[in-house]
Amino acid sequence: MILKVDRTKRFDTLAGGISIASEIVTAGTLSGVFIDKTDGKRVLVSNWHVFQGKPGKTKIIQPGPYDGGGAGDVVGILKRAIEPDRRGKLPWWKKIICIFLGWLLEEWCMGSKEPNKVDVACASFEPVDSGRTLREGVYMEDEKILWPKKAHAGDNIVGRKVWKVGRTTGLTIGKVTSDRAKVKVWYGDRWVVFEDVAIVEGLARGGDSGSPVFLMKGDEPSEEDEFVGLLFAGSSKFYVFCKYKNIERELEVEWPC
């Protein structure tokens, strides 16, 4: 598919499917605008490893630093995060060994064998440029914003078609091959175990982390589709997303309906 919209550029109106990251990360994908269930405010959502940093301090930039974002592109501050494997971090000396030999010492480089279910974070909307605004929904390839107003827990969806929009590969369509998967994901210095996640036969590449995923009702994306989760790992053939029900419960945010 030929991309019609440059998702790595600076957008005055923020919606899902565009480049974003914390000031200490390269670039990932903005999942979209969600509602914080703790205070009713609208927040920006992506993966923890895209918004990585210290809550209340770390700045969120659009586009991400790798795509040229800087001090004038700050759009928010990290508000809350669910860090995968937060219960079993590796000591510094073990991290160094695992960075270089993790592919060989898989079990030894496992921070904890207790499974995680999400890799998510949210940020307040505090742009340094007062001209920037928020819109619910996601950018399509014609740069119009589509807003599916329903959400799905993520269970019992094997065989269903889904679509996602990501910073790197844009809009792609895939098929769910498992909705109760248990997987191990490499986080640069350790392996992390996830369970109750979904696997899709579909395209994803670096920078697509955080892509919102939608269940399709028909043959093309539409507002009748349902938000079902966030992509957090993938390849040229498969990607993995965490389910909406677990995002809602652990991060305490909801898809605006």
Question: How would you describe what is shown here?
Answer:
- This protein is mainly β.
- It has a single domain (13-254), classed as Thrombin, subunit H, CATH 2.40.10.
- Helices cover 7% and strands 40% of the residues.
- It has an eight-stranded antiparallel sheet with strand order 3-2-6-7-8-5-4-18.
Number of helices: 2
Which of globular, elongated, flat, extended, rod-shaped describes the shape? globular
Q: What is the CATH third-level topology name?
A: Thrombin, subunit H
Instruction: Using the coordinates above, name the CATH class.
Output: Mainly Beta
Using the CA coordinates, give the radius of gyration.
Answer: 17 Å
Average pLDDT value? 91
Please state roughly what percent of the residues sit in beta strands, choosing from under 5%, 5-15%, 15-25%, 25-35%, 35-45% or over 45%: 35-45%
The biggest sheet amounts to: 8 strands, antiparallel
The portion of residues assigned to helices is under 10%
Tell me the structural class: mainly beta
Task: Give the secondary structure arrangement, pairings included.
Layout (H helix, E strand, L loop, with lengths): L12 E4 L2 E4 L5 E2 L2 E5 L5 E5 L12 E3 L12 E9 L9 H10 L18 E6 L7 E7 L5 E2 L3 E2 L9 E6 L3 E17 L4 E11 L10 E4 L10 E9 L3 E6 H8 L1 E2 L3
Parallel strand pairs: 1-9, 11-16
Antiparallel strand pairs: 2-3, 2-6, 4-5, 4-18, 5-8, 6-7, 7-8, 9-10, 12-13, 12-15, 13-14, 14-17, 15-16, 16-17
